[in-house]
Amino acid sequence: MISKKAKLGTEPYKGVRDFYPEDMFIQNHIQAIWRKTAESYGYEEFGASILEPSELYRSKTSEEIVNEQTYSFLDRGDREVTLRPEMTPTIARMVAAKKQELIFPLRWFSIPNLFRYEKPQRGRLREHWQFNADIFGADGKESDLEIISLARQTLLNFGAKENDFEIKINNRKIMSYILRSIFELDEDNARRVSRLIDKKEKMSDKEFSDEAQNIFGARTSQFIHVLESKDLDTVTMNIRKGDEEIVGIVEIRELLEALKEMGVTNAFFSPTLMRGFDYYTGMVFEIYDKDSANKRALFGGGRYDDLLTVFGEERIRAAGFGMGDVTARDFIETHGLLPEYAPACDLYIASIGQEQKGPIRSLSEDLRQKGLRVVSDVSDKRIQDKLKKADRKKYPFVLIVGADEVKTGKYKIKNMKTGEEIECRNEEIADKLLVDSQ
Amino acid sequence: MISKKAKLGTEPYKGVRDFYPEDMFIQNHIQAIWRKTAESYGYEEFGASILEPSELYRSKTSEEIVNEQTYSFLDRGDREVTLRPEMTPTIARMVAAKKQELIFPLRWFSIPNLFRYEKPQRGRLREHWQFNADIFGADGKESDLEIISLARQTLLNFGAKENDFEIKINNRKIMSYILRSIFELDEDNARRVSRLIDKKEKMSDKEFSDEAQNIFGARTSQFIHVLESKDLDTVTMNIRKGDEEIVGIVEIRELLEALKEMGVTNAFFSPTLMRGFDYYTGMVFEIYDKDSANKRALFGGGRYDDLLTVFGEERIRAAGFGMGDVTARDFIETHGLLPEYAPACDLYIASIGQEQKGPIRSLSEDLRQKGLRVVSDVSDKRIQDKLKKADRKKYPFVLIVGADEVKTGKYKIKNMKTGEEIECRNEEIADKLLVDSQ
What we know:
Two copies of one chain form a homodimer.
Chain A: E1 18-19, H1 21-40, E2 44-45, E3 47-48, E4 51-53, H2 55-58, H3 63-69, E5 71-74, E6 80-83, H4 88-97, E7 106-110, E8 113-115, E9 127-136, H5 140-157, E10 165-171, H6 172-182, H7 187-198, H8 205-216, H9 220-228, H10 232-236, H11 249-261, E11 267-269, E12 283-289, E13 297-303, E14 318-324, H12 325-334, E15 347-351, H13 357-369, E16 374-377, H14 383-392, E17 397-401, H15 403-408, E18 410-415, E19 421-425, H16 429-436
Helix pairs in contact in A: 1-5, 5-11, 7-8, 8-9
C-alpha cells in the first residue's frame, strides 16, 4: 500500500531530462539518423553498461577529472565504480579483452548515455547521449578519411547542407613538432601550451599573449604568428625537409586532397585545433556550426593509436569521433531541420454503443497484424468527446464503428487533416492506410 | 599522453554485461520487437534519466529496498540520488508533473535500463533493460484487457506460439477480501500472508503449512484449500452475494471471457498470484514459460490506480507491465527463436591495386545514398587476404574492383553464400542488392 503521508515532488533530478513523447520523438529521430548513417558505412553497434570500474578513467584521464567531474562512488562491496563520462575507454577495454578473437578492421558504433557532474548549462547536462563511431586496425590514412566522411554524412543525413557547417582539421604531430623541435619546449611546457591553445577562444588577445609570454618569452610573437596562419605552408615552413613524413604533414595534405576529390568543399586546415591533450596521436578534427546563432564546435574526433597500450596490448591504429544529442538537437533546431511530431498511431477506432466491443477488438487485432498502429477505444464516452480527443492527440485517421458498420462490414475512415472520408470494406482498410501513411 | 605505468584489467564491472556486436544484434532484435508491438497498439515512447531523487523510491517501496538493493549515493551537492531500480515510480512522477496538460488516456511505453545491487545470478543482473507499457486514464476493464493482450502479443511477435506460455490472472481485491472478511485478519497479518504466498513456490508444503499455522491457527487447512482451488467459483464461494462487484470477481470474469472471445486459449485464473505487496490495486497477471527447461514467471504486471496519490494527485486508473531483456532472451533462446546474426553490411568493396581508390570512394558514397550498407576497403593488402576476411566477417556480397572494372564500368558481385556471381553495371548494383537482401 502506498503511504500517503508525504507529498512527493515531481521534478527530475537536477541537470537531467525527462523525455515526454514529443521529446522522445525527436530523440528517436536523432538516434535513427545516427544509426542509419553508421550502418550505411557498415559500422556495427556495440554496447556496455554505464557502470565501469573507476580505474578505467584514472589511467588516461587526470585524477582531477575522476575526482571532481564524474559520478564516482563506492558500491556496497567497496568497489570503486564510475558512471561512464565518455565511451572511448570502454571501447578500448572491450577491444583489448577480445583482441585475439576479433576480426580487424573493426567498424563499431554505439549510442551510450554519458554522465558528468558539473553545473548544468546550455548544451551541457549531467546526462547526455552520444553517437560514437570508431575504426580499429585499418590503414591510417583511409580510416582518417572514412571517419571524417561519416561524421560529415551524419549532418547531411539530418538534412543539413554543406554550407551549414565546416570541418576543421589538424594533426597533433604538427603542433607537437613545432613546440618541441622549433620552440624547444620540454614536455611540461608543451602541455601547458596545448591547454592554453584549447581555451584561446574564451580569452582576450591580451590575456592569451600574456600567458604565452610566460612560456615563450622573446619568441612569443613568432609563436602567435604560427598560430594565426591559416595556411598549411606558412605553419610548416620551418619544418626540416626530411621530417615532413614524421610530423603528419604528408597525412594532412593527402587527407585534404582526398576530401576535395570527393567534392567536400567545407574542410580546412586549422592549426589551433587541439582537442585537449589526452589520447589523440595524429589527425584531429572538429565540426563547427556556421550559423551565427549557434556558432561553436558541434563535435569532433581524431586518431588515437595508443589507446590499447594501457591494457598491455600493442598499439593499434584507431580513429573515431563522438557527437552529443544536446548539440545535435540545437544544430537541427537552428537550421530548421526538426521533424514534425506525429504520434505512433495510424488509425483510431471509436465505438458508438455497447455492442461493438467484440467486433472492434477483432478488427483492431487484424489491422495490427497487417502492420497498422491502431488505438481502439470502446469506452462508454460520447462519440463527440472521443472525436475531440482524437483531434487533440493528432491521430491522422479515425474510424467510427456503430451497429450499422458491424452489420454491413462497410466503414468510413476520416482523414483528420483534410476532413475527407474514405469508404471501404474492413479487408481493404490496411492497404488504403498503409499507402496513405507513406 | 597515456600513462603506461599500470596495466589495466579488461573485465566489465561485476554483474553487468558488455554487448559485442553479436550480442547487440540480439539486444536490438528484442528491443525492436518490443517497440513494434507497443506501437502497433498506438503506445508512445517516453524516456527519463537513470538518475532519480532517492525519495521517489522511499515513498512506495520499503526503506529496506532503497537501503540495501539499490544503487543510492550522495552526489557532490549532497543530494540523495538513486539509479532507478524500476520505471513505474518515474512514469508516475512524469504523469503527475504534467497531469493538467496531458490528454488522457495515455498509452506510453519505455525501454529503460534498471539497476539493483544484488548477487548476480541466472536471470538477475545488476543492470538490465526492461520493456514497460502503461495505460493511464482509460476505462478499467478495457485497459486490463488491452495490457494483457499487448503483453501476449509481444511474445507472439517474437515468434512464440500460444502453447509456449501461459497467462495467470488474479485480482488483488479477491485475496484481500478473503483474508480480511472471511479469515478476519488485520492489515499486518494480511500483509504477512501475501508475502508468504509470494514465496510459496520456493518452500516445501510442510514449511508453508507451518508458517500459515502461525497466522490462521485452526483455520489453516481451510485457507490452504482456498489457495489450492484453481476454480474461480470454489475460491469465491464464500463471498457474500452483494460483494462480488466490490471484490473484483465481476472484473475477472469479464476479463477471462473477453480473452476467450478473442481466441486466447492460455489465460487462467490463479488464486496464488500476488506480485509482492506494493502499488497493485486490482488485476494482476504473470506470464509463465511452459518449457520445462525454463519454467518460471517471465514477466507480469497489473492495475495500480493509486500511483499518483503520493504526488498529491487524485487517483487515476492505470495498468501496465514490465518485461526484462534477460528473461526475454532466455525465453526466445529456449524456444529456438533467436535470430541468426547478420553484420550491418550489404556489400563489401575491395580494391586490387592503387589506382582504384578514388572511383571506389565515389561508388561507395553513391551506393550508400541509395540505401546500401557498404564497407569499402582500399587498403594495400592482398586481395586473397581481403576475401578471407570478408568471408570470416560474414559479409553477404563482395565486389572486387581492379583497373578493368573502373575502365569498363562493368562489375561482378559475388554472393558469398552461394558462390554465384552477378554481373552488372554500377548504376544497377543498388537495385539488384536491395532486392536480394530482402
